[in-house]
Specification:
globular, Rossmann fold, 5 strands, 5 helices, about 130 residues, alpha/beta
């Protein structure tokens, strides 16, 4: 099963590692280098997407510490538009402390705790 994945990661080396392993596993990857670019990429994909019950990306993989807009801010904006968009935070923090709304985190939001191996990331994305 091939997934359409949006990756927001400001570290170019990390982003290229993610892209290589994801593409090697047959997935389609788009990379945004910061939170603002991630929102723009998401909105553009959404505008070209005519289905209301499906999301433009199967998964949005977010780094939380990014310039211009944090992963949490990006997630909130995306979830405002598409509440069931699957989002995975690549973060060293607990998701509730990230979103600061315990018990209020949508089921579509998951966390991949750093440090993680690329294989762990692949199995999480494909689960």
């Amino acid at each position: 099963m091939s997934l359409n994945i949006l990756v927001a990661e400001d570290n170019a080396f990390t982003a290229s590692q993610y892209t290589k392993i994801l593409e090697k596993n047959g997935h389609k990857v788009q990379v945004a280098k910061d939170g603002v670019e991630c929102i723009k990429t998401y909105e553009k994909a959404l505008s070209e997407f005519d289905s209301l019950d499906q999301n433009p990306f199967d998964v949005v993989l977010l780094d939380n510490n990014m310039p211009r807009k944090s992963g949490v801010e990006v997630a909130k904006e995306i979830l405002d538009k598409r509440p069931n968009q699957r989002i995975i935070f690549a973060s060293a923090y607990d998701i509730n402390s990230l979103i600061k709304a315990p018990g209020n985190v949508p089921k579509s939001v998951e966390i991949l705790e750093k440090p993680f191996s690329l294989n762990t990331m692949i199995s999480k994305l494909q689960s």
